Amino acid sequence: QVQLVESGGGLVQAGESLRLSCAASGISVSSSVMSWYRQGPGNQREFVAFLASDGSEGITTPADSVKGRFIISRDNAKNTVILQMNSLKPEDTAVYYCRALAGAGRIYWGQGTQVTVSS
């Protein structure tokens, strides 16, 4: 029943922007801890950004590698988590995964969406 479906990936040139979406069903993004991870070719999966579930403003924490360029947010009405990616670099090329920490400590992952940045 629980699903996380990422979308918005694609092929872009360096300096351009992409907006990734993670549409959730079976869980509420407003009451879950949401995050984005990525895995480049030959690399381990790494943390990208984190969004806490408390408060209307939330608590956001980006990784150092994307600080100042990426913004994580949620749209509670659409039960969706967003990753706004600006000033993209070739080293941002990876499969991006949505992750949810829901009730009772349950963790869910999306299937991933490919982001490729060319120079």
What are the salient characteristics of this protein?
7-stranded mixed beta sheet, 4-stranded antiparallel beta sheet, 119 residues, mainly beta, 52% strand
Give an overview of the whole structure.
- This protein is an all-beta fold and 119 residues long.
- The protein is built from no helices and eleven strands.
- The radius of gyration is 14 Å and the shape is globular.
Write a concise synopsis of the structure shown.
This protein has 119 residues and is mainly beta. It contains no helices and eleven strands.
**Fraction of residues in β-strands:** over 45%
Query: How far apart are the termini?
Result: 40 Å
Order of H and E elements: EEEEEEEEEEE
Percentage of residues in helical conformation: under 10%
What is the overall silhouette?
A: globular
Please describe the biggest sheet, giving its number of strands, its sense, and whether it closes into a barrel. Answer: 7 strands, mixed
What is the arithmetic mean of pLDDT? 93
Number of strands: 11
Judged by helices, strands and strand pairing, the structural class is mainly beta
Sequence stretches where pLDDT stays below 50 over 5 or more residues: none
What's the Cα radius of gyration?
14 Å
Number of helical segments?
0
